């Protein structure tokens, strides 16, 4: 499998969906921090399942940096306005999310 870990910046408010049996998925769009001016390919779609998705919505906001661990897969682009290429988009099925740099104004404190 393609297990990965990386740092990304949250660029869009998360969208949450519910399936049968109260299974939830939170979809997040993040961007890799990059010094080059070429922006192609640095937008990633994250799928966060269950309780981790609920905690994500509670503690993280747009412009926060997070460390993500999960498995890589490919899918069709969701937001064509954020992509410069019409190729497939990378999607990560998330297993763990850690704070890296948070904008701490008006946020609840993280649980220890």
TrEMBL record:
Pfam families linked: SSB (PF00436)
Keywords (A to Z) from UniProt: Chloroplast, DNA-binding, Plastid
PROSITE patterns assigned: SSB
GO molecular function: single-stranded DNA binding
Protein origin, superkingdom: Eukaryota
Keyword DNA-binding tagged: yes
Stored InterPro entries: NA-bd_OB-fold, Primosome_PriB/ssb
UniProt-recorded name of the protein: Single-stranded DNA binding protein
